[in-house]
Amino acid sequence: MPEVKEKSLLILSPPPHIKAGDSINKIMWTFAAVLMLICSYSIYISGLRAALILAVSVVSGITAEAVFQLLVKRKIRVTDGSSVITGLLVGMNVPSHSPLWMSAAGTVFAVVIVKEFFGGLGFNIFNPALAGRAFMAASWPVYMTTGWHIFPSGLIPADKLTMTGDLTQGVLDAISRATPLTAFKEGGDLLREYNIPFESLYDLFIRNNTLKILATGNTGGCIGEASALLLLAGGIFLMFRKIITWHIPVSFIGSVALLSYSYYSFTGISFPGFAALIHILSGGLLLGAFFMATDMVTSPLSSAGMIIFGTGCGLITFAIRILGGYPEGVCYAILIMNAAVPLIDNFTRPAVFGITKKSI
């Protein structure tokens, strides 16, 4: 009887079978490093108070995750960087003069309720940091809408101006609010009330070099809204490293830009392009589009799904900004679209190789 040669065993393993060099930890810490760079500039702009808020948020996130995992007898995984990212993002979504306990409470809510209660990293339905921001906005709205950092040159529009074109001191004081987005949203109604041309608001923004100030970060807002250019550079770096893709940021920002330009063109003002730039550079649009809407756990899997997701975020953001009573809509837009991700994935799921729709 011939001798049977020993055959090597086939190794079976679950997909994916083609592995990249990046691990979850490496991706998370790279993402955190980019956020830390942006936060460093925010601290330079807003002062050490911003550093305290960010530090409290990060420590609260790590502690809350470790304690919860210990209590429910899960393996403690605080070294993966996810709680650090959540803490940084929660801290970036509050004003620089807000109470320290508030950012701690928001981070604990984000980590424990929104992430760990659903099973931990990879199982949460909503973006934890944005859910934490929504929790803080609902619980302590005064702290979330005041306490902006006052810069040496004043807020934007500058509060030290006495007269600007057709604007009286009273009207100027009324529209010199915390952020350019608020002033742009509410200023138009106030000008119409006083029968002042809307173009006067445009002159006010132009004379204060608003676009330049938004790019460099010298304006009121949350800690993470420090510099539009730095946020854009960080987002491009993450795309270059293939940690995120272009689909969500481009569709998100592009839809807001297109809707803003169309809306202001339809209303007949003479500077729709400038108005669209204000909507892009102001508020949390860039922070949300690059660093929160792209969360791989709470965003669609396919490219088509990502574009639908980003466009939906843009539509809801614009609707809240223009039609709602709240000047910012990025947070709620992303959370609403997070809830729609399973439906989007179901309709954009690519066909399995070798299977047609008729055979399903």
How would you portray this structure in words?
- The structure is a single chain.
- It contains 17 helices and no strands.
- About 7% of the residues have low confidence.
- 45% of the residues are buried.
- It has 2 domains: 122 residues, no CATH class; 179 residues, no CATH class.
- The termini are far apart.
- It is mainly α.
Structural class: mainly alpha
What is the number of domains? 2
Rg, nearest Å: 23 Å
Distance between the termini: 49 Å
The residue-averaged pLDDT reads 80
SS field, number of helical segments: 17
How many beta-strand elements? 0
Sequence-ordered SSE layout with sheet pairings:
Layout: H1 24-46, H2 48-71, H3 82-92, H4 100-115, H5 128-139, H6 141-145, H7 169-175, H8 180-193, H9 199-207, H10 210-216, H11 228-240, H12 247-266, H13 272-281, H14 285-291, H15 303-323, H16 330-339, H17 341-348
Helix pairs in contact: 1-2, 1-3, 1-11, 2-3, 2-4, 3-4, 3-5, 4-5, 5-16, 11-14, 12-13, 12-14, 12-15, 15-16, 15-17
Features:
single chain; 360 residues; mainly alpha; 2 domains; 17 helices; 60% helix; globular
Tell me briefly what this model is.
This protein is 60% helix and 0% strand.
